[in-house]
Amino acid sequence: MNRVHPLSEEEVSALVRLHRETKDADVRSRCDMILLSNEDVSPPQIAQRVRFSRSTVVRYIQRYEAEGVDGLFTKPRSGRPRRVTSEYEAKLLEAVKQGQHPGAGLARVAAQSRWAWGVQLLSPVVYPMAPLLLGWFSYSQFSGPLNSKWAV
Fold this sequence. Notes:
The chain is mainly alpha-helical. It has 7 helices and no strands. It has 2 domains: 9-72; 86-141, no CATH class. The longest helix has 16 residues, at 102-117.
């Protein structure tokens, strides 16, 4: 099964729409693989066009056949679980935004997080750059990490 089944108009339009709307370059390449396979292009020729190996092309054709469009997305991988939850990140960002001084607010919240949860958020080298990293200033407005105004 090295080629995709003949696709209906709805399937083709869904793939074209996904290709156009996604920001993930790998998903766009996989859409190209399926659309080219639908045009009776062989896997070696598809591989040459999209610059992936022939085995990768065949794997994503088979995944598309088995799972549909969902098979074109990258599956989650195993790994170390996150120590910081999304809820905590949202609370942290809100706490930093409410601080009177961006650098001091970030330092205070980071120190509190180390004490309360044992989570090291940012190294001391990053603290002076916090306003820039959080988008409070553009790079042209920021004179550098050693600016005493933002140093902690």
